[in-house]
Amino acid sequence: MQATKMEEKTTEVRGGASTPQPQRLRDKKVKDLIHDKKRLVEVPYTASLADTMNALLANRVVAVPVAAPPGHWIGAGGSMILESDKQTGAARKHYIGMVTMLDVLAHIAGNDADPAEVDGGDLDKKMQVSVSSIIGHCLESLSLWTLNSNTSILDCMEVFSKGIHRALVPVDSHMENISGVELVESASSYRMVTQMDLLKFLNAHEHELRGILARPVRELGAVSDIVFGVTDKTKVIDAIRCMNRASLNAVPIVESTEDIEEDHGQLINAKDRKVVGTFSATDLRGCPIPLLQSCLQQNVMDFIHKLCGIALHEASGLRNSTKELITCRPESLLREWLTKLSRTTFIEFGSLMNRDYSLA
Questions:
Q1: Which residue stretches belong to region Disordered (predicted)?
Q2: C-alpha distances out from residue 31 to 28, 172, 190, 191, 353, Å
Q3: Distance separating alpha carbons of residues 295 and 307, to the nearest angstrom
């Protein structure tokens, strides 16, 4: 996402009185993104990984901050983000990191050089470790930031364009009234703001972005020539390990062919290949541990079909990516891409640039 110049705020005169126009997008603040957000979902540092995954699924989120007693931990990335008493200002919690499904993937993947880990190891045992022990498995969990509620939408766009996917927003900060991204904060409560929140907000204000949203995706340089994917013959454990090594939240699944000799245990160049689904961290979040353990050696397509047949997956609002591909073409307008993503409960894949359901 790239910050773009917006129209200046204007006024009009009617009957000699100056009437303010509706607030322009460039004048909006981060607080406008979180006004209807629910209380922050978090987990204690002693929670097991299984409990953490249950929290992710129950609250339909893909990341949660980890809270610990103050004064005992060094925050991720050197951060010092505290929850404090509203009356006295005394610290009650210290957020020590952000655990995402990528961290869970890294933990499940284990060390594939270890003979005991070839088939994925004892998954039930892995899921009983404390969540604090997996912070830092992936770089994203070391990115714990806050955004002041008075930060402008344009500055928020700039921050998220640098690879930060989410940030905590203090509801009533005890720090000086700063504007921007910070590693140090103290507040009585927080909300979470994500890239998806920003996308939905921009989509709701598309009338102010006509000049941008009416342009083709290709023209904006948003089509990548390199697309990493897996084949429909890739095993679940191999797909998890591939995603872990490449720090990918999701990969397209492409149709295998006898005309190409390829290693189904590795990422492949999926450009110009027929897409038959996506495999994502979101899929794993909605999977009961016993089922995941039994499916690690199955191919990704069989796993997705089996997963979509259980009641928990349907109740959680997750979709079957083999039947509901979110796609757009290089000539598609940015408005179409933004609308599709903003109507999706979870962003699993930035976008699939396709031609007749082939990556192009």
A1: 1-29
A2: 8, 11, 11, 10, 33
A3: 10
